[in-house]
Every structure is written in C-alpha cells, then in structure tokens.
Amino acid sequence: xxxxxxxxxxxxxxxxxxxxxxxxxxxxxxxxxxxxxxxxxxxxxxxxxxxxxxxxxxxxxxxxxxxxxxxxxxxxxxxxxxxxxxxxxxxxxxxxxxxxxxxxxxxxxxxxxxxxxxxxxx
Length: 122
What we know:
Elements (H helix, E strand, L loop, with lengths): L2 H5 L2 H21 L2 H89 L1
C-alpha cells in the first residue's frame, strides 16, 4: 500500500523545498529597508556616472566642432592665398606681354631708324 513512498524521489522534493524557502527569504531580504538603501545608492551612483559621461561627451563634441571650424578657416585662407598668387601670376604675365610688345615696337623703330639713316647717307 505504501510502495509509492519508497519510490518517491526525496532528493528532488528537498531541492524544490529549499528553492521555495530561499525564494521566500530572498523576497523578504530584497524588500527590506537596507536593501532599498543599497538600490538607491547604486542608482544614484549610476546617475552620477551618466552625468560624468555626458559632460565628457559634450566636451569632446565641442572640441571637434572647434577643430572643424579651424580647419575650414585654414582652407579658406589657403584658397585666398592661392587666388592672390594666381592674380599676381596673371599680372606678371600681362606685364611680360606688354614688355615684349614694347621691345618689338622698339626693335621695329630701330629698324626704321636704321633704314632711314641708310637712305639719308646715300
């Protein structure tokens, strides 16, 4: 009649009972005032850490924006300097052309003068 008691697995039953006991005790411990203080302090520390990380992130972002703005200014200055150099080169080329034209005119005048002198000597 009581053969099922012999076949009953007491080890599994004991583990189940221990789990219920620890679960009930765990709920009591986690719900205590001391545990709530620990949770509160951990949450406050996490919020402080978040604030610190956000400050660092905003500083990095501001520095990156400053670097970007300075880089743009450097490129603008370089472009302006290249434009001045190109303008100066164009002006020098124009002056060279004018000088060449003047030399050609002077050469033509000398040739005319020489021809005139040769014609008057004869």
